[in-house]
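cron nightly-structures :: item 1 of 1
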Amino acid sequence: MAAELSTDDSGTDGAGGSTPISAINITPFVDVVLVLLVIFMVTAPTLMKDTIGIQLPKAASSEGAKPESLAVAINEQGQILVNGTLSSPENLALEAQAAMARNPAVQALIAADENSRHSALVTVIDTLKQSGLERFAIQVRKK
């Protein structure tokens, strides 16, 4: 920290000691706060995926996700989550159309819980296709 101690007599108190330092350099504090912010930004997506509570089925061959994707998840109860927020099939269609408007090469990445009903997955795929989004991938875990 940067501080200056005065050596002249004008900075002494009555007991012969020097006055307390009143200027504090906040640059190190800001540096620490920014480092913590970066750490939280990096770990938040990993923590968010665990809080949704989806157990992906295993497959021997799987591919990584494309950066241009619409994240669709189906939990064990059959609820649809679009980019981490609870949604209905109608809202899924609107989100898919908006994603297609932003980027025509968008791909839907579908993560369905291994204990979810097959009909929920078929509903999601059908909704995406009716919205014009033909490219999708089903997310799995490696065995």
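cron nightly-structures :: done
Strands lie at 58-59, 69-74, 80-82, 85-87, 107-112, 136-138, 141-142.
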